[in-house]
Design goal:
Chain lengths: ~450, ~375
Amino acid sequence: MNYVTGKALSRRTLLRGMGTAAVALPFLDSMQSAFAATTKAPTRLAFLYVPNGIIMSDWNPAQDYEGKFREFPRAMKPLEAFRDDMIQLGNLTHNSGRALLDGAGDHGRCSGSYLTGIQVKKTTIDIKASISCDQIIANKIGAQTRFPSLELGMDDARQAGDCDSGYSCAYTNNLAWRSETQPLPPTLDPRVLFERLFGDGQILTPEERALQAKNRQSILDFVMADTKKLQSTLGPTDSRKLDEYLSSIREVERQLEKAEKDNKQVDPGMPKPYGVPADFAEHFRLLTDMMLIAFQSDMTRVVTFLMTREGTSRAYREIGIPDGHHPCTHHQGKADLIEKVSKINEYHTTQLAGFLAKLKATKEGDSNLLDNSMIIYGAGLSDGNRHLHEDLPTLLIGRGGGAFTPGHRIVYRKETPMCNLHLTLMGHMGVPVENFGDASGPLDPASLSQVS
Amino acid sequence: MQGRGFVKPPTGITFDTDFGTSIDSVLTIALLRAMSSKGQCRVISVSVTNSNLKAAQAEEALSDFYLGGAQGSGTGFGGGADKIGLATDGKLKAETPIIKTILEKKNSQGKPAYPYKIESFIDTAECGVTIRNMLLAQNDLNAVVLLDGPAGNLVQLMNLYGAKPQITAKVKHLIAAVGAYPNGTAENGIKFDIAAARKLFAEWPTPIIAVGTEVGEAIPYPGESIDKDYAWAQDHPLVDAYKAFKPMPYDAVTPGMAGALYAANPDDGYFKLSEPGTITVLDDGRTKFTPGAGGKHQYLIADPAQKEKIQKLYAQLISTKPVPPAPRGRGRGIGFGRGASGAAGRGRGAFGASGAPGVITPAAPAPKE
């Protein structure tokens, strides 16, 4: 164990055990005692992306307004408990997602441009985008954490083939781009993510994993000695905090084991990744629980999360929708299809609410993890029926460590570049950048403070 | 949007003006809309230099009138109300008699004669960004930027990161209906913002064709047309604006109209072009043309032989009763993207998602995958 002797515990302390097990620690009070004047919890940034647009009449208020939140429209209703924790940003536009002479393929373009801010090359072979804003941040501050960034997803990680009218699957299936030709594929399998976070990063074959599972012990068992040693040095508050944190890891392990067991029962020969639950909510919960742990223990400060990929035809049988998401979004005004998309939109924000509740319940000094985060929830299309790239549904959730005073809706002028938000976020992550994509400048700071 | 590999559509014109400061801006928008309806050009964006919301509202009202009451002014990418650029920090803040007349005129039922949808600044767009976004949707060198007023918005465009190469790729030339050539008195469009005009002529990356006051004076809009050609309309915004600008009768000086006509029909011989040279803006706002073979600037020269023909054309085009455009099935006709109307889920009271009552609203088309 790497203790800083004396009063303060190092932020980088790891609980180590037999083999390769290593568990990072959450932000404890005893970590800041020696640096009380200067230690501040880091700001975390996450992008949670939902595809195929949103039913905008469920997203924007019937009578438009700016200022303190009034009644939430249907798609935002599940987020009611967080009305004081978020800002709804209206009219942000990604011009580079539009056709601009490249014809069909709005799904491929909008996800490709979402964080890169440029019009991606229409191709299935020689892909070309640009470094994404999350990676600009990761490049700058990533050395301070175990993982410069994490890329997560729940749908499809194919990197080749045509996923939309001549656009490579690399555009629809990745949000993060390390360079203009190198996307960072998301991790879909919670078990793989778990092993990344708590192991040595070794990727196992399904057979090796099955063998390991048979003899599986909790990661906490491996680090038990170190845990006990640390606990003896902590005060009651930190001790409770550590206990809760380790319990959350144990809970993830239980969920993983359950998912793996269920998967076996469903179809032992299925090609699905070993630890991926069939249920959307369960899958989301597992990934976001680990995302929370990664934030809490400062394993990373930057996450991109492709909830499902752009153009996905995933069915939502969990909520009684056997039809594909994407076909439903081309509803052409048909009420039954609109209702299905509305339900999917609501289902997504319901999952988000669960994640936000955990972030908010995670204490961090005098604050909590949500307050110290900037969670961007949004889509690369607004109206999925017409493939519109303006007024993109966007929520900025959290206080960015005190950078924002949320609780309101702000509507920018038409055509305001989405990249202006990215520029703003990069600045708040301590990575000021002068130009990015088609940004015309950072968002007005006053717009991110609550309007009375 | 246009598509690569398709026949090149008519020239896309982005128009930037100090709307309502002079009658020229009103006449020029009318002419652009009329030529657009005949397929001679496409109006891809309109932005106003005035820092006054009412200027944008009046421009929208006029444009909608010329589109036969169709929703939106015909620019934009479809979906949502169309984007009218509006400067927020310009020097022109006053509400002019032209703007006031267009906005306050009531019809025989006591309702606004010229409805508009813009209600607040958030219904308008940042000028530089809007112009750039629209230019990027054009085929290379198939766009013309037409300026009829102070140059602040175009300077804002030039200042956007990476904009100059984009302008060079898309814009055939800038037509600047400002100044007087080869020499003359200081003109208002330049005097309002000398620094911006100076920067524009010095740094704009494409060829510039200037249209001086002398062209507008040589071929004015015939005032007699106002009482003669618009009798079909009980209320007509151009007629009301014309009468509000100056006591009748008068012929209107219209360099903007000349610039618009040339922008849409450069090869029709309506005007002559000067030799190449360089235009500089002097400290007092006057412009000076210095001939030189390597110069990127030229200016239009009025041809007296064309005067009558052009005046008739002006009157005929802008006095013709507008016809609402037919709804586009898939909304991929030339010019305006996917239809010009229909806000997606953002109601704004009477002028909300489905627009003003009684106006044809094209159905939302579903794009091809």
